[in-house]
Amino acid sequence: MSDDERLCRAMDKYGDMLFRYCLISLRSHTDAEDIVQETFLTYYKKAPKFSDGGHEKAWLLTVAANKCRDVHRFRKRHMTESEELLNDYAAKEEDKRILEALLEVPEKFRQPLSLHYIEGFKVSEISDIMNISQSAVKMRLSKGRKLLEEIYRKEFI
Questions:
Q1: Residues 33-48, buried b or exposed e (16+ Cβ, 10 A)?
Q2: Over the stretch 62-83, which tens digit does the pLDDT of each residue have?
Q3: CATH number of residue 29's parent domain
Q4: 149 and 75: one domain?
Q5: CA 138 to chain CA mean position, Å
Q6: Taking Cα atoms as reference points, which of 56, 63, 65, 58 lies closest to residue 10?
């Protein structure tokens, strides 16, 4: 399979997942699109070989997560933040409220929550993607769930 064919296949298979992840992380439609494009550009340039689709998916998410962190660092230094609403990406009203509450959770907790509950990654996989220990992932998931519940109850109930 040529590099072009591999890229097209990866974009078809993982493009939506990467966009959702970046959108939740960055809270900006345009920034999420940019990061997804940059992630696939990196994939094309490096042309990594994977033993299975799970490794490819994890590699792409790791690259996207690193690029999202770069955007967050830039925003922190330059004091810019986009507050785009994600209502178009949730099917039900309840999902919209949960998504809005998730956006209020600090990034440190939002990333593992979205990887685990939205994308279905295991703790060990999140640990590899985020480059933190499994116990740190478990702690962030636990604290993130509590924060999410507090925010949801305060704003929507």
A1: eebbebbbebbeeeee
A2: 999 999 988 878 777 755 444 4
A3: 1.10.1740.10
A4: no
A5: 17
A6: 56
